Amino acid sequence: MIKKEKLEVEYKLYRSINFNMDDSKWYKKPEMIVAFSALFISVVTTIVGIYSAYVDRSYARASVWPRIEIARSYNEQSFELWVTNSGTGPAIIKHAEVTFKDSVIHQWKDLGNIPNFIQSHLSSRILPSQQKIKPIMFNYKKRAEIDSILRMDDYLTINICYCSIYNECWETDRNNRLTEVERCEINEEDRFLQ
Predict the structure, then answer these.
(1) Are 185 and 126 members of one domain?
(2) Strand, helix or coil at 160?
(3) Which residue ranges run through the membrane (predicted)?
(4) Of 38, 43, 113, 170, which sees the most CB atoms within 10 A?
(5) What predicted TM-score, i.e. pTM, was given to this entire model?
(6) 116 or 157: which carries more pLDDT confidence?
């Protein structure tokens, strides 16, 4: 009997030393608190990592964003159309659509008998950041020629569709109105070829 009592005393002592762990709730045990703390920290770290990747991707896209602008310039001797990439990344020009008096033209010579013009290729090219091209330039000798070209310019519309290196695409016009598009598509009959 003494042995049995001795065992009971030892068992009570054992339980008191182990902080009555057998009687406590599972979520109050120290090892469970440590485990939940580690799990919480892991979840927070994962969320921060995902958000950081999102911010990095947004920054990468913004750092190579192209911005095509169309402008004209003229003086006493010449008239020029400019296409400028004022963005921070290269513009991949997919196509241009040029109309004159609501009729699609495919080449600058379709404008009529205009002497002394110089042309550059506009469609299907890459325009680096902060670079510009002159799709067309007219040289003239008489004031009547500039008036004729300026009247012609009033009926000339240009739409350019271009993409970034991330395949995000936009369309712009002579008023530099920018419209985001899913992709650059055009009927082949409407494509400007030069």
Answers:
(1) yes
(2) strand
(3) 33-54
(4) 170
(5) 0.73
(6) 157
